[in-house]
Design a protein that fits this description.
Length: about 300
């Protein structure tokens, strides 16, 4: 995808066909992930990404973002696994004994349910993350979060307040309907169960949520969106409105510290650049946009 390939902003209600944001999470996670995201944008269908302010390759991601002005940049709010920007002593409810965020979203969620996550500490840390991104000279178009933790009610209100403070209104609403292809995949029921839990929180938050897409896709195949799966997703997308399709591309990295995630970054990169996927998007009359267009 070239820098001139993005469709111009159009009004959702007036426009025919589906407007699709193809969005990569985890910009800044590693240089290999950063390189894959930019490659998927320059040579594939990717239109948008969100940057992790506390991730190891943040500075590398900032440099690439400034070199690729057509790539839409959002904020990937992070409260899981990575080291915080704030002194751990000042946010004790958010960190473990190593001074890092809790290792998994399930650990965070269990502590949240038990009332062990301090929302004031969440506000301090997430404010620092947004501020670091803006101070780096990037213009953020939207907010989302690592492992979708912003959909927890107490976290959501903090994120919305910070969005208003920093002038960033659009936010991801990761509600993905259950589609027939999900019911035929081996081992898919556990993922559907997770999806339904996330959808519950999305449904609770929908009223007054603010600018977002009409639909969302990509949770079911999170981290494992190869070409075959991507074609399934694209083929099942709605005919009209707006939709965000989440993905996780990257360059193959056997030395990655995140191999335990089980993500297939290189397969996702290949899928986003595959000619058959681009052809299916064209056949369906889908127009690629970014979060910048939602409020244009």
């Amino acid at each position: 995808m070239t820098e001139t390939a993005l469709q111009p902003p159009q009004d959702t209600a007036a426009a025919d066909g589906l407007r699709l944001i193809v969005h990569a999470d985890d910009f800044g996670l590693s240089e290999k992930v950063n390189e894959g995201i930019v490659d998927a944008h320059r040579n594939g269908i990717l239109t948008s990404t969100s940057i992790m302010a506390c991730a190891p390759a943040f500075d590398h991601a900032v440099r690439l973002a400034k070199e690729t002005s057509s790539l839409d940049i959002g904020v990937h709010l992070t409260l899981v696994e990575e080291p915080p920007l704030t002194d751990p002593a000042k946010i004790p409810s958010l960190v473990d004994e190593t001074g890092h965020f809790h290792k998994h979203v399930t650990v965070f969620a269990k502590r949240y349910v038990r009332g062990l996550i301090n929302p004031d500490e969440v506000r301090v840390e997430l404010d620092a993350q947004i501020t670091r991104i803006l101070d780096a000279g990037l213009k953020a178009s939207h907010l989302d979060s690592h492992q979708h933790v912003h959909m927890l009610p107490g976290i959501l209100s903090v994120a919305q307040d910070l969005g208003r403070k920093h002038g960033i209104a659009p936010m991801r609403l990761p509600r993905e309907p259950v589609s027939p292809y999900m019911l035929t995949s081996a081992g898919g029921l556990s993922r559907i169960a997770q999806q339904l839990v996330l959808n519950h929180f999305c449904q609770r938050a929908r009223k007054g949520f603010g600018p977002t897409t009409d639909r969302f896709a990509g949770f079911y195949y999170g981290g494992k969106l190869d070409t075959k799966a991507l074609l399934r997703v694209v083929s099942s997308l709605p005919e009209t409105g707006s939709c965000e399709l989440m993905c996780h591309p990257g360059v193959d990295d056997p030395a990655s510290e995140k191999l335990h995630w089980g993500y297939t970054w290189a397969n996702e990169l290949s899928a986003l650049k595959d000619a058959s996927v681009a052809a299916e998007i064209e056949r369906k009359g889908i127009r690629l946009i970014s979060f910048r267009n939602l409020t244009a």
